[in-house]
Design a protein that fits this description.
The chain is built from 8 helices and 9 strands. The protein is of the alpha+beta class. It starts with a helix and ends with a strand. Bound molecules: iron/sulfur cluster (SF4).
Length: about 300
């Protein structure tokens, strides 16, 4: 990668971070606005969603972070065969440093042993970059900022489970709903679930997060999972938990479920809970490192 390309790439990534932190994607905004209209006028749920809508508008207009917690910094990157991933990593680190200095990201990365804040969001595991190679000739970068409060209420279940059931779809459904009940309003709901059925403990959680890269209005290509997604949202929204736990009809805005093969001896259901501040964006980059398309 030439110096000119590296400079352009860093600028593109900086803009991707700014937009992700300050502008909620249209597909997410649409479901939040629609949920607000469905809550009763004068209810706490309607009030909470209206405040969220105002927050979304203000953050975009002022180019300021949607939430004080700018979250874990996650990148999901597809690169052509032979692409210099180390140069991409360097550009990403530089962009994250600059985004932190400009206030697009809070100083949010803490040494887990000493408790010291690195001050620039750089350290082991931050930013977290997942590389995948593909045979296309361009780079695709998707990013997500995942808040700590909603990460705290994610959950992982091993089936069979004495209260949730066996290694079947009934057990899976109960496990996912248990995660919603466990979260109550603590994950800054209404939430969006990313779920993985199967895998091991690490791959299950990783896949559950990648499910959150799907758009809110897509349909799962697996008809069984598509039905399960609908049923989870419908049942969760009858729980009465509501936005921020204030009660109401909107506990979940969506649920995205994937699956990985598992060992005969284990059956995990991994649930990543995303808060209303569902910050994800993506870009396609040309070989010069410039943005040619926004993905959401
Ligand atoms: S969970 Fe989400 S909305 Fe709540 S404080 Fe964290 S980032 Fe903000």
């Amino acid at each position: 990668m030439t110096t000119v390309q590296a400079t352009a790439l860093e600028a593109s990534l900086l803009e991707l971070i700014r937009v992700t932190s300050t502008v909620l994607p249209d597909d997410v905004v649409r479901v939040i606005e629609s949920a607000s209209q469905q809550e009763d006028q004068g209810s706490n749920a309607r009030y909470a969603l209206d405040v969220i809508c105002s927050n979304i508008g203000l953050a975009k207009d002022k180019s300021q972070p949607l939430c004080q917690d700018t979250g874990s910094i996650l990148f999901f990157v597809h690169v052509p065969v032979g692409y210099d991933q180390l140069a991409f990593q360097d550009a990403t680190i530089a962009a994250v440093r600059e985004a932190t200095a400009r206030g697009y990201l809070r100083q949010n990365s803490v040494d887990s042993v000493t408790g010291g804040n690195t001050g620039d969001n750089i350290g082991p595991g931050s930013p977290n970059i997942h590389f995948h190679q593909w045979r296309r000739d361009y780079v695709e970068v998707r990013m997500m900022l995942k808040g700590g409060g909603c990460e705290n209420v994610g959950d992982q279940f091993a089936l069979p489970h004495p209260k949730l059931g066996g290694r079947d779809m009934a057990g899976v459904e109960n496990a996912i709903l248990q995660a919603v009940l466990g979260a109550q309003g603590k994950g800054c709901g209404p939430g969006i679930l990313g779920v993985c059925i199967g895998g091991d403990r690490a791959s299950g959680y990783a896949e559950s997060k990648e499910q959150l890269l799907r758009t809110m209005d897509d349909t799962n290509p697996d008809p069984l999972l598509a039905e399960l997604e609908e049923r989870i949202v419908s049942k969760a929204n009858k729980s009465g938990i509501g936005p921020m736990g204030f009660g109401g009809a909107t506990t979940l805005l969506g649920c995205k479920i994937g699956k990985l093969n598992r060992l005969p001896a284990s059956f995990y259901v991994s649930v990543s809970y995303m808060c209303w501040a569902f910050r994800r964006q993506g870009v396609d980059l040309n070989p010069e490192g410039e943005v040619v398309r926004w993905l959401y």
